[in-house]
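Second attempt. The first submission of GTP 3',8-cyclase had a stray character pasted in from the spreadsheet, which I only caught after the job came back as garbage. Lesson logged: always re-copy from the clean sequence file. Corrected sequence (329 aa) follows.
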Amino acid sequence: MLADNHGKKLSYMRLAVTDRCNLRCFYCMPEEGLDWLSRAELLTYEEMLRMCRLMVQMGIEKIRITGGEPFVRKDMMQLLSAIAEIDGLKDLSITTNGVLTASYITQLKAIGIKSVNLSLDTLDAGRFFAITRRDEFAAVMHTLEELLKHDFEVKINAVVMEGKNTQDILPMVALTKNLPVSVRFIEEMPFNGESHSYTGVQWDYVRILDEIKSHYPTIKKLVDDAYSTSYNYQIAGYTGTIGLIAAYSRTFCGTCNRIRVTPQGSLKNCLYDDGVLNIKDLMRSGATDQHIKNELLKAFNQRPLNGWEAERLRNKQVGVHESMATIGG
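This time the job returned cleanly.
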C-alpha cells in the first residue's frame, strides 16, 4: 500500500492534461482567459503515460483525467486508451464540462470508462451564459442525455455561489427524482485566477444542506465510501443521490487518498499546496524510473496534515488565487 507520512493511503491521482478551456467560468478564470501554457511547458502524452505507469506500479489504483477541459487537447482519446490499458489500474474516469464530450461517448464506453463527472452549475440557459460567458448550455445538456443513455455513472458537479446560482439548488435536487445521477454541490473556492475578489465561502455545506432540508424533509444521510469527499444523501423515493463537497471547509482531509498532477507536471499533495515536485523536469533530465519513484516517495512523506496546513505553508507571494484550470479541476 502506498501511504503518506500520516499513514493515509494514497490510491487516487487526478491528472490535468491541459490548462485550456472552452468556457470562461468567472469563478475559475478572467473573461479574457489565462496566459496559456506553451506546448513545451506541458507534459507530453508519452510523459503522462510513463508517469501513470509508475504511479500505478507504486500503488495508485484510480486515475481521473481533468483539465482545463480535457477534450480541447488534441487526440485525447489516444491518451485515454493507452492509460486504460495500464496493468493494475482499476478505475479510469474523467471530469468534463460537456461542451465537446458527446461525440466521444461511445469511444469512452469502449475503452472501459464507466464514470464521468459533468461540471454544470445551473439548469437555466441564461444563468449558464452569465457564469460561463459562453452559449453552450444546449451542448452540455445533450452530453448529459447521451451519458445517461449509455449507462454511465454520472456525477453532476455544481459550485454554489451567492448571487449567481443559489436558486438552482432545488431544481438540481429535483433532477435526482427520476434520473440515476449524483448531484454534488461544491463550496466555492478561491482558485479564480484573480478574476474576482474572494472573501470566504458564503454557502458552506451546512447552509446548502439546510436549504435542501427545508424543502425536502425526508432527505436521509447515506453511508459514505471510505475515501469519499462528499457527504451523501437521498430523498425518500428518489432515484438519484445528493452530495455535499466541503471543498473550502476541508472537513474530508482526514481521509484524503488523492494526489494531483498539473498540466506542467507539478505534483500536488493537496489542492491548497504550491506543488512539491516537478515530475516533468525529472523526466526530461534523464531520471530513471526508480529515481523518479524515490523522489515521489520523498514528496509523499512530506504531505501536510490537511488543507489548512497546506495553505499556511504556501509561498505567500503566490497566494491561493491561481486558476483551477492550471491546478486541475
